[in-house]
Amino acid sequence: MFSLINAIGGIGIFLLGMSMLTNGLKGIAGETLKKWLHTFTKGTFTSLLTGFLMTILVQSSTATTILTVGFVSAGLLTFMQSIGIIIGANIGSTSTGWIISLLGFKISLQAMSLPMIAFGVFIQYVAPSDFKKYGGVFTGFGLLFLGIDLLQKGMESAQNWINFDSLNTDSWLSVFLLIGIGIVMTIIMQASSAAMAATITALFAGAIDFEQAAFLVVGQNIGTTATAIVASIGSSIAAKRTAATHLLFNVVTAVIVTIFIGYILQFVKFLTVALVGSFDETVGLALFHTLFSVFGAIIFVPFTKQFSMLLLKLLPEKANALTRNLDDQLVSIPSAALEVAYQTLLQIMKQLTDAILELLDAKKVTSSFEKKVRDVEEAILSVRKFLNEVQSDSTKLRNQHVAIIHVLDHITRLVSVLREQQKVEGIFHHEKLMKKWHKTLEQINESYASEEKLIEMEQVLEKTAHKIAEERRTRRRKYYERTAVRETKLDVAMSKVQALLWIDRLVYHYWRAFSRLVEFKKGAEIEESSSFQDVERL
């Protein structure tokens, strides 16, 4: 009984260590991973290699997959490129088995783990905030090794509480049962690495034989897709396609490997002997796990284009949904979450531009204008909820995060301006001014596809906002002066001033939202101009 408690406790500590290790490494390497994804995914092979290296770096294929989903959602990666990354991540996730088989049974893990835990906790309590994540990495590694040590001790008497003798691998029924057990193990533990650790340790303890362990690994590869499937429920189309890619890749590979398992295991034994000089079952199982994903890559990579077209057809994009890319699974990776928020707000700005142009052309509130503004209002609420869960962990990300919040604030105010009663009066009372604004908006609308043009248009908008602010100051005084000498009725003058103030607020908030979007891409922090802090623009 005590050994069973040791084994369960070992799995729990292993999972805790893996979680701390992954979170720490994501915090350290988040920006690096972002640059890698954008730079080294030009072809299928480079995408596969990127997914492989990233997963080894953060020790989590889930983290790689979530980051990939974020970049597909943000339009920085094509779905076809993401397939290569996911396949590479599957291969990279097998590194845990190698760590356990090569180190876990060769050295005293407890003697190594405790100093690492102590050092990591010390860093987390003493070091500055920017260095605390390094403490999480050390603590995570220490807990991971301590978990394996406890698991190993628990499995020493595993034969007493695990009985696989009746599951003869010569029977297809036993094979399906073993695969099913592997699937259940991964779903319960919510981590294929923990299930793999338990399987290797049971194999080392003699509770299961090599072939039984191989079929458990096949099941675990299928079970690892459950997390992505559950996470994709209610998420974006990009998340659903990613989950479908993961599922189809692992299930199809599992079927083929199961059919040819006899030949594959013979090949594994041959390679293991060639690598270590004799047949080491734990090393052989780690090799089998890696070959499983490599065989899948060999099968899928030549047909990546066809595979992506099939999934695009099975899971088509939602029609013109502003918030289709906001996926709650992205909030754990701030760089990806902020990029998606930026792209969403960019689309919102484009829709508002269309709505304003429609209002200026029709010179009245149309049903189409109302729908566009209503969709934006709903999108604003979704973006707020999404950003509320994001926590930035570096100076650059914090600057970008603040810029995004400023964009959201100005868009909210811009929508409030468009809901005011003076909008139609502004068009009629100041027709020449609105024609110039119409021309500027048309230029901006053509610039949304290019970052360089957006930067140029930000400067144009700044000049326009300053000119209209000056018009507001000079015209307002003239209207009131005419009223004083009874050249204009007071009601008319007041109406024109209110319309002018409406135009001023409209242009100002549009410019500031646009400016903050540009600021986000530059990654710099820009202060609001003190001369543009008027209460009239609230």
Q: Care to describe what's here?
A:
- The chain is an all-alpha fold and about 550 residues long.
- The chain has helices at about 1-40, 45-60, 60-75, 80-90, 95-105, 110-125, 130-155, 170-190, 190-205, 210-225, 225-230, 235-260, 260-275, 280-300, 305-315, 335-360, 365-385, 395-420, 420-430, 430-445, 450-485, 490-520.
- The longest helix has about 40 residues, at about 1-40.
- It has 22 helices and no strands.
- About 80% of the residues lie in helices and about 0% in strands.
Beta-strand proportion: under 5%
**Strand segment count:** 0
Order of helices and strands: HHHHHHHHHHHHHHHHHHHHHH
How does the helix and strand content classify structurally? mainly alpha
Cα gyration radius (Å): 30 Å
* Total count of helical runs of at least 4 residues: 22
Mean pLDDT: 80
Kindly state the percentage of residues in helix.
Answer: over 70%
Largest sheet: none
Distance between the termini: 68 Å
Low-confidence segments: 525-536
**Oligomer kind:** single chain
Shape: elongated
Quick description:
With 538 residues, this protein is mainly α. It has helices spanning 2-39, 44-58, 61-73, 79-92, 95-104, 109-126, 132-154, 172-189, 192-205, 210-223, 225-232, 237-259, 261-276, 281-300, 304-314, 334-362, 367-387, 395-418, 422-429, 431-445, 451-484, 490-522.
Q: What labels would you give this structure?
A:
single chain, about 550 residues, mainly alpha, 22 helices, disordered C terminus
